[in-house]
Each structure stands twice: as structure tokens, then as C-alpha cells.
Amino acid sequence: MSNRRFKIVLADDNLVVLKVLSLKLAAHGFEVVAISESDQIIARVSEEVPDLIVLDQHFGYQVAIGSPEWNGLKILRWMNRLEHLRDIPIIIMTADESVELKADALKYGASAFLHKPLDYEQLVRLCTTLSGSARPPVEAPINDGVDEPVITAVPTAPPPPAPEPVEVAPAEKNFVF
Q1: CB count in 10 Å sphere of residue 113
Q2: Side-chain half-sphere of 153: how many Cα atoms within 13 Å?
Q3: From CA 59, how far away is CA 69, in angstroms rounded?
Q4: Minimal CA–CA distance to 85: which of 37, 112, 51, 58?
């Protein structure tokens, strides 16, 4: 029996969640590569070639991508287009309770879909079960007409410059939590 540790790429923009999940998975013998920015995921997954990906659905605005719409489902759909990433099992996790989101994630090839707050033991069981297995077949067409370009290589262009700061009027500084 091999002593090789299964490698998991864990992607979440919440650094606390990223740290807690990294520690939990490492405690169960997994090698964890933690990524906090969505614009690094495709390149890092291509470099690391993990046995499994655990991917948050929602990421904050990423200047390098230039779109507040960059999310786990879009990343999943991009990975479907890259042959060397197509078979890596992916677990999508989110606090979003949308039934449609879960259906879409599974339709586009997610191996599992978990709701936050996560049951850590369930996550560990899923990671153990899915590590080294192939992803289920994608039900939706790989080139399904979405606005993203078809990627044939890992993006290497430098990120565009950060946008200029925006002045916020005092009346607009109220936040609802």
C-alpha cells in the first residue's frame, strides 16, 4: 500500500474558513493546498494536479478577473473545458440554499454539493471517498455558449491595474449586517 497523501486543493475567499478546513483536512492525513483568490484557482490546480478540489461557490470581486460574477460554478465550467482537469472530483460548498444552484453544480459535473456551515466529518468522509476517483460525467454540454472564452492553456497574462478609488458620500456609509 502506498504512503502517498491525497492532495486537496481547497479554495475559499474567507480566510477563517480556509484555515479551519485546511487544519481539519490535514489532521486527517490530506495534503492541503489553500487558495483564497478565485483568479489563482485554474493555474494552481494545473500546477498542483490534486486528487480532489473543494471549491467555495461565492468569491468576492476579483480585480484580476474584472467581474463580480466569478464564482465556483463558473470555475467548474472552465475546468470542464481543460482536459487535464476534467476528471478531478470537485466538491462545491456554499451557504446559498438555492435548489437551482445545487442542480446546476451537479449538472456541470460537481461530485458533491455541501451547505455551510459544514459538517466537518461529512466533508472528511466525502474527501476520503472521492480522492483518487473520477468526476461524474457532465450532463450539460462543455461548450454551452456561456460568455467565458474556451481556455486551451493556463492563463498567464498579468492582472490589469487596480481601479481608481471611489469617493463615498457620508450618507452612503451605512451598512446592513
Answers
A1: 18
A2: 3
A3: 8
A4: 51
CATH code at position 65: 3.40.50.2300
Kindly report whether the global pTM for this prediction surpasses the value 0.85.
no
Question: Is the residue at 148 inside a domain?
Answer: no
Q: What is the dihedral of CA 73, 86, 2, 29, to 10 degrees?
A: -10
Domain count, the chain: 1
61-76 per-position pLDDT tens digit:
555 545 455 788 888 9
Burial class (CB in 10 A: 0-12, 13-18, 19+), 169: exposed
Residue 177 lies in a domain: no
Count other Cβ atoms within 10 Å, centred on residue 51: 20
CA distances from 156 to 3, 40, 42 (A): 34, 10, 11
Q: Which domain holds residue 114?
A: 7-137
Residue 175 lies in a domain: no
**Per-residue cell: 153:** 492553456
